[in-house]
Design goal:
By secondary structure, this protein is an alpha/beta fold. Helices cover 42% and strands 16% of the residues. The protein is globular and about 65 Å long.
Length: 349
């Protein structure tokens, strides 16, 4: 490994990956990020001070900017995380998801292809592009069923559809041009430094302000919750050992309902906050469900265990405790990054 280019390295998952990489790896990392509402240099802590970290502000939709960073930095690994990710926002404004997730990925692929084609044979052989997708591309899975690598896609939200389109472009560049690409499909990530529009930080954010805690519909939707550190550990393995042309599912294979997660968040909040602030669980209120809200996502993740010995190391209880405690101890981070976000509901028709 000579140099890694990460797109979206100031976002939630990206910043976690960067912090880990700079701490553990003696390999240069180039962080290419537009710094949208969900990307913040404040999430990179001391990684920004390392001589092995280079930050370049840029848009993956800008072919000139992407080409410049490739030619100037000469990476032999690319981790593609830059994306619009919030389903509610995609329902309200799908165009930015098409622009970033589809057109941006196409721009990155085309520019990377030209860069890769001019490399020497040994450099070509060692080059890898790892694209990070989502479990949502498969659409809802039936009770007792697991989606496997290679299963048909059936996305239902604009966000999921945009990621599915990006995946197909990645595969097409691999099949058509021989570009050495891989795809990771993670389940729901959670952990510190996640923008407060997502369920877990949103509940903490609302609780800190004494507001109600909104739970969509009956709260029985089931998800696989993956601690972000475990996800990033899997991405590190795939960059080092993954096989071009392959897809990999990354998750725990343990499902929880949104209501169960919400109640567990409240229990953790109550452990940290004083009894005088009341029982957080009592502030959970059912609100109108998300349009076309998929009931259940479930992935078969045995390929990662079978081929690399990877499995999630962090239990949900431990990960949730770490996460809630971090947010409650870092209210200044939320205030710094939230901008004009006030916890308002998005994505209602």
């Amino acid at each position: 490994m000579q140099k890694l280019l990460i797109t979206g390295g100031a976002g939630f998952i990206g910043s976690c990956f960067v912090r880990r990489w700079i701490e553990k790896q003696n390999v240069e990392l180039v962080n290419f990020d537009l710094l949208t509402y969900a990307g913040h240099l404040e999430s990179l802590e001391e990684a920004r001070q390392s001589p092995r970290h280079t930050f370049v502000q840029g848009d993956i939709c800008d072919s000139i900017a992407v080409e410049r960073v490739l030619l100037e930095q000469k990476p032999n690994l690319i981790l593609h995380l830059a994306a619009e990710t919030h389903v509610d926002r995609s329902i309200e404004q799908p165009a930015p998801f098409v622009a970033t997730n589809v057109a941006g990925t196409a721009t990155l692929l085309e520019t990377t292809l030209r860069y890769w084609q001019q490399l020497g044979s040994a450099e070509k052989e060692g080059f890898r592009l790892l694209h990070v997708s989502t479990d949502e591309v498969y659409g809802p899975t039936g009770s007792g069923q697991l989606a496997c690598e290679g299963d048909a896609y059936a996305p239902t939200s604009p966000y999921a559809a945009s990621k599915a389109a990006a995946d197909q472009l990645v595969r097409a560049y691999g099949h058509t041009y021989g570009l050495p690409v891989m795809i990771a499909h993670p389940t729901n990530n959670y952990g510190p430094y996640q923008f407060p529009e997502k369920l877990i930080p949103h509940f903490v954010f609302q609780s800190m302000r004494g507001e109600s805690l909104p739970l969509y519909g009956d709260g029985q939707q089931q998800r696989d919750w993956l601690f972000v550190e475990d996800h990033c550990a899997a991405l590190e393995i795939l960059l080092a050992e993954g096989k071009p042309g392959e897809s990999y599912h990354v998750g725990t294979q343990k499902l929880r309902s949104n209501r169960e997660v919400a109640e567990n968040i409240c229990a953790q909040i109550d452990k940290v906050q004083s009894a005088a602030e009341g029982d957080a669980k009592e502030r959970i209120v059912s609100v109108a469900d998300r349009p076309a809200h998929d009931h259940r996502y479930a992935l078969d993740c045995t390929k990662m265990q079978r081929e690399f010995g990877w499995s999630a190391k962090t239990s949900f209880d431990d990960g949730l405790q770490q996460t809630v405690e971090w947010y409650l101890k870092h209210p200044e981070w939320i205030e710094t990054v939230r901008g004009d976000y006030q916890g308002q509901r998005m994505g209602l028709l």
